[in-house]
Amino acid sequence: VGPVFNWGAYVPEGILTSCSFDYLSTDSSTRSFILCMYFCGFMLPIIIIAFCYFNIVMSVSNHEKEMAAMAKRLNAKELRKAQAGQSAEMKLAKISMVIITQFMLSWSPYAIIA
């Protein structure tokens, strides 16, 4: 959308079969456009995703601790089964964090170089 309003530019790349943002130009308009794309298209989503997953992991962890304390007090088999379910949710949250981390590690070099 930026180049429509004369902010940044798209130029042909490679063998002239596709276009990309102009990363070779050094004028301030193009540089600010690239920085905005980097922050809005890469960093901001990563920050939001990390914040959300951190809150999910913390909520599941707190709930797991509460369930463990309740199971000890009541010594009930049903609560232990629920605790096992909570452990599965915690494992799922950890796997999700690994996926997000892998996404960041995979795309960070491209986002930084481009």
From TrEMBL:
Residues that span the membrane, as ranges: 32-57
Domain G-protein coupled receptors family 1 profile: 1-114
Compartment(s): Membrane
GO CC annotation, single: membrane
Membrane topology summary: Multi-pass membrane protein
Keyword Transmembrane: yes
Record's keyword terms, sorted: G-protein coupled receptor, Membrane, Receptor, Transducer, Transmembrane, Transmembrane helix
UniProt keyword Membrane, yes or no: yes
GO terms of molecular function: G protein-coupled receptor activity
PANTHER family: OPSIN
Protein name: R-opsin
